[in-house]
Amino acid sequence: MEQTMTGKVYLVGAGPGDSKLITLRAVELLQKADVVLYDRLVSKKIISMIPKTAQKIYVGRAVGDDTTHQNNTNDLMVKFAKSKKNVVRLKGGDPIIFGRGGEEAEFLKENKVKYEIVPGITSGIGSATYAGIPLTHRKHASSVVFVTGHEDPEKKNESVKWKRLAKSVDTIVIMMGLSRLDVICKQLVAGGLDKQTPVAVIQNGTTPKQKMIIGTVSNIAKLVKENKITPPTNIIIGKVVNLSQVIGWRKNA
Known about the structure:
By secondary structure, this protein is an alpha/beta fold. It contains nine helices and ten strands. It has helices at about 25-30, 45, 70-80, 100-110, 125-130, 160-165, 180-190, 220-225, 245; strands spanning about 10-15, 35-40, 55-60, 85-90, 115-120, 145-150, 170-175, 200-205, 210-215, 235. The protein has a five-stranded parallel beta sheet with strand order 3-2-4-1-5, sandwiched between helices. The chain is globular. The protein starts with 7 loop residues before the first strand and ends in a 6-residue tail after the last helix.
């Protein structure tokens, strides 16, 4: 017999943008939800999958918003779960890849609320695949790293050691890093990365609005301004970027 879902929070990844990339498990949970707390980057098509009987609450946070915003989301999850509701906490991408899902699970654990974590395709992978960029390749890249370009402003010191990263890994995927792209590229070059290393910036990856520009670490920041690229974006640095010219299958919007 199917287990009744009551008083539980589901931390669910909605995928990278294309609504068809959401998982079957995520759709199943949405259809049974009493309450859905959803983020800014969840697409309208996925929001439309939520039954009319469910309460939809937007809890999205934009860059620059007060960090105490998260406290309200945490309180809502606990409040509804303790009211015996099935709560879906719906996040863009994957819930525990730069999605605060880990922190939210810790909060639920502390408050003795049952939870389940449902993975989603992170935009770092989805955008690359839709752009025809294999993040690993036997001839060009045996390692890949996912890095945030925008760390918590409450941190006293930057955690990402860009100079060390420059020669430690073959492919670097940067999420939420557009506003600091120029600084990041300069630090990577200072750490020994070749100035001609190719860079792709993918805007609105996997959606009908997907747009990609390609440059090098020495000129990509300028190209971003010239092409008026804005968030959300993913940045990919490494030799594998050149493969998009060969196997890319999706045209720019």
